[in-house]
Every structure is written in structure tokens, then in C-alpha cells.
Amino acid sequence: MPDSQTIRILCVHGVGHLDADLSWRAGWTEDIRAAIARWNPEAEVDLDFVEYDTFFEASRISPLTVAEALLRLTASGVVHGVGDALGRPRGAAPVSETIRWTAGMIAQWEADEGVRHRAEQAVAARIDAFDPDVVCAHSLGSLITYGLFAAEPQRVRNRTFVTLGSQIGNPFVRSVFGGRIVPLATAKHWFHLYNREDAVFTAEIRLAAANFEQVDAFFDIEGALDHDAREYLRNENAALRAWRAIATPGAVPRALERSTEVWSAAAAKVRRAHRALLVGINDYPDESNRLEGCVNDVFRMSEVLQELGLDPEDIRLCLNERATAKGVLERIAWLLEDARDGDVRVFVYSGHGAQIPQYGKEGEVDHKSECLVTYDFDWTPEHAIVDDQLVELYSQLAYGAQFVGILDCCHSGGMSRAGFPKARGVNPPDDIRHRELRWDSGREMWVPRKLKLAAPDLALEKDRTKYLGTSGATKRLGRGVGLWTGREQFERARKTYGKHKGGYTPIVLQACQENELAYEYRHGVAAFGAFTYALTTIFRQVKRQRPNFPELMGLVAERLHELGYAQRPAFVGAKAQLARPILDFGRKPAPKRRRRRT
């Protein structure tokens, strides 16, 4: 870089009433200039700033809307307990000024398309006037700026984009963009500074693009200070990975190095295109909930996957006490990591399933969330695998990848019965059971409450009941697409922000329908899941015919019916994926050796 060159940086602030206190400008200026000077002391740094608070001030938002947005954000499954950072208003309670200028601003941004557009155009106007080399945006400012760049790619052409403390990857936020974050192909580079300790609705971004790099900007400060912009700007890893590249254009960002022939040749030797994660839990802490066939299911599925050509090195098992919510989610992240077109990823779960009654925006139980019952399950989303957590991991997958989930568990909760057949559902404790009951004074009896069906938040509203069922479950595993809008809003968002196909939809094979129980099967002295045993047995019989998923599941349903099991397998997925032959790993297994006669 010539000594006389000036680096022009446009700064876009995050949540908070910052037009009332402009001290943030001085702090950002000090930190950014110091970061640039570390790598290029001769560089001139010129900063400009964008404010947009007036648009949010003018558009008043109701406490109920703030509460609803908070519940959607905290239900995203990205970070547990995030509401503690900003507080959780419930129902029509008064909204404090702190909430109004933090979570309330995000609620306004999501709910008011007019506010979004005016804020985006304020950023666009400053870009046109200032012509920056770098756009640095924090928190809500990153949402506004990304929305502008996704809709108008020319605004970021040949510029570097830096996002910090950003909620862009949050499933709730992704719904505004049509369920998917798109690469900014025209950008010179995009650095996403992410701190896993930042509890203000932030999230990772999983984006396969040569000009994108997520930077681990870890710091841990008590309270909500983990969201502080200056801590991100001063972070050492951010300095090494982002500011160095900005200050010295000759330094190639690490993500761009991946496009070189040297990196590609090395990566080709170690990248595992096909992977499988198999989770089985027999030994739940509560003896009354223990099962017998789940670990056997996992080994049986591993046999079949290896017969199909999957290398043993690409199969991971997670059993019993290791299968905590955290442990399973970490392994699912490995499973789906770097999945590209043509790759196959398989997730198998064998254990208990349940539905957790959930509170709605008015503080009343009005829906349920379907979940997998992990080893540390305690009837809270924090210790379970719910659909929003899976959406966070699979929604950004390449459309040409194949992600298959095979779930041998109940999906409505159920009774653990002694002996055989044994159902794979757990009895809820009395306080959880109470959420789904009401007192009928006329009959003088407790009766089930009629919970609301799924709110109008799916793109395909006419298929809502068919897709989610009738039990009041608004979150069913594999059926979440990260959408909180109706069909019209979804189509408009999808076309505005990148003209994509929406969030990735996996194939999910389930042992039973939503209000049925999945049972165990005794094969001699060994126990298995009835669904898993039927599925693997029939597949081995017909695999030479290369059936697709609907054909295979039809045969499995017939077999279970013939054997007298009161469970009907279910499946969901994109039509194009379902129509493909099942699980082609692209490698034929070694032929079996025949013994010579002597």
C-alpha cells in the first residue's frame, strides 16, 4: 500500500439509543485506527458514521410485539438463556427503555418492513456519499447492512464487509431473509467476528464462499458486555485475521487461500465427503425410562452404512452418558461441517422422544416443541434436541448435499411400559403434565387443553396441519424451515435477498406418526427398535433394486402392520431428494472372500 493511501471505513452501530450519546464514535475511531496502525503505521484512516435511530423512534412498537419477538429469538436454540442478557417481557407488561432500545429495536426491525427499508437506505446514502473501502457493522447495524447488500449487491462491490456481534445467522433473523443467508459474491471480503460467549442473540454463519471468513473473536466478560463492539474491535484474533488483511492488502485472508491449488490438493486428501453420526441411549439416569435396543440399533445401522460403502472412519457413535444435549449438538456440527454438493450426511437417533409444552407470546402454554430426549433431559429446551437447534445447523447446507435423519423414537411423549412391547416415550413430571390440562368444573375432572395449532408462520400455510400435525406442535424435528412469515412475505423476502430457494430441507425418516408410540422389538434375546430392525432388514432385501425413500418406507410400514405394531412410519423431505435412490456413497464395498474347500 502506498504511504499516501487512505483507508475509508464506514461504521454502522448496533442496538442502543446511540444517537443520544455520540461517545461511541470516539471509541470506535480510537480502536480502529489502533488496529490499522499496528500493521501499517503510515496509513491514513478516514471514518464516517451512520445513524438510524430516528426511524425506530418514529415507529412505535407495542409491548406485545416486543414480547413475541423476544420469544422467537430466545426459542431459536442458538444460545440458551439469551433472554437473561436483556430481560424477557411477557404479555403486555410495560417495556423499559433498556428493552425498547435493545431487543425492542430488533423486534421493530423484524416486524416493520418500512423501518427496515428506511434504515437500509440510510446506509446506502452514506455509502454513495463516502465511498468506503470497508463497511464495519455491529449487531443490529449488521442486519441492516447485510439486508442492503443482499438486495443491492452493487453497494458492496469491491468493498470489505466486517460484521461483529451479529445476529445474521440466528434462525429468527434468517426468516426475514427468506430462510437463508446468501454469499456476498461482489464483496472483496466478508469477515464475521463471532464470540460464542455473546448472548445477545448472536450466531455463527455457515457459509461456503471463498470471500467469507468467520473469525473466532472470543472474550468473556460478565453480563451483557460480551456484546460490546469495542471488545470485538480490540480482539487479538480479529487483529490477526481481519485488520491485518484490511491494513495490508498484500496479506491474503485465510479463506481466500483455500482457492489456491496448494490448499486444494492438501484438502482433497483429508476432506470427508460422506459422514454419519449414530446416537443411541439405553441407560437413562431414571431407571424407569431405560431402554434395551437403542445401542443395538446404532450398531445395526453402522453395519448397513458400511455395506453401502461408507468408510468406518466416517462414522461416529455417541452412546448413553456421552449423549448429552451439548455432546450431541457438537457432534451434529461435525456431521454437517463443510457439506458440499454431492455429499451425503446421515444422522441416526435411537432413544426416547417427547413434546415439551411451550409458552407463547402472552405467557400461556399454547403450543409444543417436539424433541429428542438426551441423556441429561429435564423437560427444558436447554437439555434436549429441538428442531430450531437442528435448523441452525442444516439450513445453510448446499442444496446439492443430502442430509438424512433417521429417528427411532416417539414424537409425542408416551408411557414407558414394563416388558415388551416397550414404548420409546417418557412420562412427563406432574408440573409439565399440568401445562396440557385444564379443570372442567362441570364434569369435576381434569381434561386435555386444546392448544393452538401452528401459528400462521409457515410459507405453505395451506399445508400447515399436514406438515406439522394436529397436536399443537409448532416445532417438529426436520420440519422447521426457520420461517416466521406467511407465504407472501416469504416469497417476497426470498426474491429480495438473493433469489434463493429458502432454507435447506433435510430428509427425515421417523418411526411413527406424531401422536403414536415407537416400540422395541425382541429378536431372540437381543432387543432392537421395531422400526430400525424392519428398516434395515427390508433395505438389505431390496437394495439391489435401488429404491427411493417413499418406496422403502411403504415396505417398512407394511411389515410393521403385519407384525401387529401400532405405529406408522412417517417421512418428510424435498420431493427431488426423496425421489433419489437411497444413500449412494460412491464406493462399492469390498467383496466377501469365499473359503476354499479342503
What does the model show?
By secondary structure, the protein is α/β, with parallel strands linked by helices. It has two domains: 10-265, Rossmann fold; 271-356 and 370-424 and 473-483 and 503-578, Rossmann fold (3-Layer(aba) Sandwich), CATH 3.40.50.1460. 34% of the residues lie in helices and 17% in strands. The chain contains 22 helices and 20 strands. The chain has a six-stranded parallel beta sheet with strand order 2-1-3-4-5-6, sandwiched between helices. Strand 1, helix 1 and strand 2 form a beta-alpha-beta unit. The radius of gyration is 26 Å and the shape is globular. The model is unreliable at 76-95, 258-269, 414-420 and 454-462 (pLDDT under 50).
Overall SS class: alpha/beta
Largest β sheet strand count, sense and barrel closure: 6 strands, parallel
Mean residue pLDDT: 80
The dominant shape is: globular
Please state how the strands of the largest beta sheet are arranged side by side. 2-1-3-4-5-6
Domain unit count: 2
CATH class category of the largest domain: Alpha Beta
Output the radius of gyration: 26 Å
Corresponding CATH architecture of the largest domain = 3-Layer(aba) Sandwich
The CATH topology assignment of the largest domain is Rossmann fold
Percentage of residues in helical conformation: 25-40%
- Share of β-strand residues: 15-25%
Number of beta-strand segments: 20
Low-pLDDT runs:
76-95, 258-269, 414-420, 454-462
